[in-house]
Amino acid sequence: MRGCVHRPIIGSHYTRRMPTVTPDYAALASEIKRWAQELGFAEAGISGVALGQDEQHLLSWLEDGYHGDMEYMQRHGTRRSRPDELEPGTLRVISVRMDYLPPGTQHAWDVINDAEAGYVARYALGRDYHKLMRNRLQKLAERIRGAIGEFGYRAYVDSAPVLEKALARNAGLGWIGKHTVLINRQAGSYFFLGELYTNLPLPIDAPASAHCGSCRKCIDICPTQAIVAPYRLDARRCISYLTIELKGSIPEELRAPMGNRIFGCDDCQLICPWNKFAQDATEPDFAPRHSLDGAKLVELFGWSEEEFLKRTEGMAIRRTGYEGWLRNIAVALGNAPSSAIVQTALLARAEHPSAMVREHVAWALARHELLPPSHA
Fold this sequence. Notes:
Binding site for cob(II)alamin: 80, 158, 182, 193, 240, 265-266
Order of helices and strands: EHEHHHEHEHEHEEEHEEHHEHHHHHH
Number of domains: 1
Largest sheet: 5 strands, antiparallel
Subcellular location: Cytoplasm
Low-confidence stretches: 3-11
Pfam families: Fer4_16, QueG_DUF1730
Shape: elongated
Distance between the termini: 40 Å
Function: Catalyzes the conversion of epoxyqueuosine (oQ) to queuosine (Q), which is a hypermodified base found in the wobble positions of tRNA(Asp), tRNA(Asn), tRNA(His) and tRNA(Tyr).
Keywords: 4Fe-4S, Cobalamin, Cobalt, Cytoplasm, Iron, Iron-sulfur, Metal-binding, Oxidoreductase, Queuosine biosynthesis, tRNA processing
Strand order of the largest sheet: 1-5-8-3-2
């Protein structure tokens, strides 16, 4: 799972007004898809707002407590699965996707297999996609308005309770795999999603069919066994949740399986056969910053809070916070081969002001058969 945070909405212009002259909606739908590609999206599709079966799946998932500390998932109720309840008057959802895999990035498996390096999910290596995609969606809305006049719309990119994967599937952009990530037959799964809710009665696209078959590679490879059944993810065990959404202590039994993954996890995507079709990102801002596609753990652990804030400005990594960053790296250093440089780095943080950081450093030191000074 990629982390989700609800942000203030920009690019909003919801009105019940309809165009004064009825457009050719079929022609408009074709133009919207063309404009979307011109704006840098890989693909766009259009769906209706009926998500009844997905709503039942969501409610069952929440009832099982798989959302962990993400209480906002439950607080939003059915607004997530009923677009016209979230935004009254919504008739259609224009879903878009944008490829994010930066070309020239260090190979993911090489980094994961280097226990002295820190693994950052490939989506988070460069600029945070939220604002970039919302701005592009706003431009798409402006092109529509330029063609037909005023209409109702609202742009979302993880900015509200939206079942983005179900909507994208219904718009023909891909199917939801057993790991709960959207998969496209021509592009794998390394892409972001965004939506434009609208009151325009556009023709809808055919939903994508599923093509996972009997494959269960994503289930078997998950380091923490977070995919508890096909299409069923227990976020409380997911490394993306543990390193990003969770603000407290990481359960001890999950620390060793995390390996060197310090922000997110891609294993279920890396093993997916469909990602042999993955497309490189065309957006230069998604290129890795500060060599984060394979930087050494000791170097990253040495960042001061000022350095962390400066170097992660405009990046998704900022969301874990400085204490979370140190917590995650402490776990990875606990899993790294024992060496003088690793031990020295951990001992330097043993008396950190944060109790959470101290706890994880102590765990890591114990893994290297050392104790922090206060326990010596």
